[in-house]
Design brief:
- The protein has about 100 residues and is of the alpha/beta class.
- It has a single domain, classed as 5'-nuclease (Rossmann fold).
- It has helices at about 10-15, 25-35, 45-60, 60-75, 90-95; strands spanning about 5, 40-45, 80-85.
- It has a 3-stranded parallel beta sheet.
């Protein structure tokens, strides 16, 4: 069982991928730390769609393509759980202790 589960929203994904974002360096460090802890990221398909749209319109198309690859690889390696839209979050998914 994983020790850490974290809900990741659009702002965090954008900060990670958009090199011009003011929080980019911090996001890279935070995601690296979570990866080293074998954390499970939880997000929704709404957030994935919103992030792709944001990256395509305000950053670069290449950033959006990289994001989709990250989502696919993370799901394949069980590092990401993508909840369907409208699905109630379980308490374990949002426990921030």
């Amino acid at each position: 069982m994983r020790a850490v589960k974290l809900f990741v929203d659009t702002g965090a994904w954008v900060a990670l991928l958009a090199s011009g974002d003011v929080h980019h360096a911090h996001a890279r460090e935070a995601f690296a730390e979570l990866r080293s802890r074998n954390a499970l990221a939880v997000t929704s398909n709404y957030i994935v769609d919103e992030t792709v749209t944001w990256l395509r319109m305000r950053a670069r198309y290449a950033d959006a393509a990289v994001f989709r690859d990250i989502i696919a690889r993370s799901q394949e390696s069980n590092r990401l759980h993508q909840r369907p839209s409208g699905c109630k979050a379980e308490a374990a998914d949002i426990d921030l202790r």
